[in-house]
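Before we proceed, please read the two lines closing this message. Report back on whether the structure tokens fit the sequence:
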Amino acid sequence: MHGTYEANMAMHDCDVLLAVGARFDDRVTGDTSKFCPSAKIIHVDIDPSSISKIIEVDLSLVGETSKILKSLNKAITPHLSKINKTGLKKWWKIINKWRSKNCLSYKKSNKIIKPQSVIETLYDVTKGNAFVTSDVGQHQMWAAQYYKFDKPNRWINSGGLGTMGFGLPAAMGAQLAFPKSQVVCVTGEASIVMCIQELATCLQYRLPIKVINLNNRYMGMVRQWQEFFYEGRYAMSYMETIPDFVQLANSFGHIGIKIEKPSELKDKLSEAMSMKDRLVFVDVITDQEENVYPMIKSGQAHNEMHLSPTSEDTELA
């Protein structure tokens, strides 16, 4: 639903899809009748009831995925020399053309903090080494898109399950499992209050989590849908009763920091990360109207995306 243009187009136009442990939920498939229309689909899963449950597949491999993938590697290796290198080169040329749209571009600002820039700065400050958890909504998508994860098991979120309140308890678990590592919870003001009482537990167990709250005073993803698909009829999506998070964090015995200007972003995030033995709640006041792009409307196909106004092509693909 919020994948990059090149990834979604590659899915739509591929001729073979190898799906390992995928459940083909609606956030992944879009319109199932238009899903990978020209592809032969191979589904690897330990649960036989998942095979062709949502997407009809051409070949299934049922069993423990690690064993199946090792067997596949063993079977494929002798045939690597037979790869159609000319065809593969053409395919990469097409993919690179899709990449040239720069679908994750956004309008920079020196006056208001863009949520994308928060995640980019967070990546720079942590050098990409943090365990990152998230709650649900726009901030979840921005964290997935702009924190350049290149290590396994560092991105901990609830996927498409919509579990608001997941981020802080997940960060607590990660911090207990890796006490010497940097753990960051990227959240939003609506999600964090779902389990805000766990700040007390964090103090009890001295968990030095860093909470990065992308505070746009909205339930952002709900507002985005209302803007795109409900003619701007905003209802139950604004947050006019949220607390002062700095004072709230302080009241739980932690450190609260507020960031309101783009010029403060790097220094204050660096300051927060430098406090190795304290939980720091960073309340970042962000642009209220920023949207997540690309976006596939519910019921549309992978090649029917809303792109960012700053992308090369702003029309539907």
